[in-house]
Design brief:
The protein is α+β, with helices and mostly antiparallel strands. The chain contains one helix and three strands. Strand 2 and strand 3 form a beta hairpin. The protein is elongated, with a radius of gyration of 14 Å.
Length: 71
């Protein structure tokens, strides 16, 4: 899914993060905070926290896609 075909995206920023659950048998997971600039001073924000066991792309794949889309 290429968001740039629907919206004119100028730039995209992302910040990877890591969540370590407290106690229990839960597994630590990665996520991304994302900011997208559509027009000058018009931004959208997202928190991408994938559930890979349900088919979501892992954060490494999403980062590779960002890098390939915005060379």
């Amino acid at each position: 899914f290429d968001v740039t075909r629907i919206f004119a995206v100028n730039r995209t920023w992302y910040y990877p993060y890591f969540l370590q659950p407290r106690g229990g048998d839960q597994v630590a997971r990665n996520g991304l905070l994302i900011r997208v600039e559509f027009k000058e001073n018009e931004y959208g924000y997202a928190d991408y926290f994938p559930w890979t066991q349900f088919g979501d792309f892992d954060t490494d794949k999403v980062i590779r896609e960002f890098k390939s889309d915005y060379k």
